Amino acid sequence: MAMDNALMLGLQTQRVLQRRMDIAANNLANVATTGFKADGIWLQEADSTNAHAEEAPTNIRFVRDMGLVRNMQQGPIAMTGNPLDVAIEGEGFFMVQGPNGQTLYTRDGAFSLAGDGRLVTSDGYPVLSGGGAPIVLDPQGETPSIGRDGAIRVAGVEAGRIGVASFAAPAALQKVGDNLWDAEGQRAGEFEGVVVQGALEGSNVRPVVELTRLIEISRAYQSAAKIVSNTDDLRQRAIQQLGR
Predict the structure, then answer these.
(1) SS3 content of the chain, % helix, strand, coil (to 5)
(2) Between 139 and 2, where is the model more confident?
(3) How many angstroms separate the most distant Cα atoms in the chain?
(4) DSSP state, 32?
């Protein structure tokens, strides 16, 4: 029984650590991604998987992977000077048209004009107005100015308004890829932040923290792997002894 518990505990620890490692690695890979929000893992002690060993510790408890948690803290804002770059100060998301025509949300404001004049994201998705319509500008027109409320003016005339939505529970949004979000039925509220023209919000990933975490996870994984290996060896020897 003790041997089985040790093996189960080691295997489950490896599984959780592998998941943590994947998340930390993905965070590090997106340290330079505009508007990226770091992920974490939500672990909860399982209340129905008590295991008992014949030797101390007498009560072994397992943890359960409950899913991802989002760090929605503001990322650093850096000025770029590009008039179509915009960043959000405060809570809120730019509204964009996803690949299937659905409305998705992003903090990545690295916009540009497509050949047909549509304002698009760095991935080519159309930026939407508050009413859900693509924003179209004259590619040959004057450089637009974008107000703190998202209003786009060309030669002093409003030519569109970038849709910005806020949510009561932004951490409950569902990630689509690395930088888009699905509201998952959550109703958008009024935007109370500020749009900053000529700036981009950086990733809120802290590389030193993630790198340190990766090192710790790697060491813990090696320890768990050793437990599994030693337990398996012990099991094999026990089987051989019993077979004689």
Answers:
(1) 30, 30, 40
(2) 139
(3) 93
(4) T
d(CA 202, CA 76): 5
* CA–CA separation, 203 and 205 (whole Å): 5
Rounded Cα distance between 234 and 162, Å, is: 64
DSSP-derived 3-state class of residue 172? helix
CA distances from 130 to 161, 164, 244 (A): 7, 7, 77
Average pLDDT for residues 141-148, to the nearest whole number?
95
pLDDT digits (tens, 9 = 90+) for 50-87: 555 555 455 656 677 778 888 999 999 999 999 999 99
pTM score, two decimals? 0.81
Residue 170, CA atoms < 13 Å, CB-side half-sphere: 20
Exposure b/e, 173-190, CB count within 10 A at least 16 = b:
beeeeebbbebeebebee
User: Distances in Å between the alpha carbon of 102 and those of 52, 81, 108, 137, 234?
Assistant: 51, 31, 17, 22, 56
Phi, psi of 21 (to 5 degrees): -65, -45
Interior/surface letters 129-145, b for 16+ CB within 10 angstroms, e for the rest: bbeeebbbbeeeeeebe
Token output for 37: 């929000």
Bridge partners, residue 89, by sequence: 194
Name the phi and psi angles at 7, rounded to 5. -65, -45
- How sure is the predictor about 182, in pLDDT bands with cuts at 50, 70 and 90? very high
Task: Give the pair of three-digit tokens for residue 120.
Answer: 């698009």
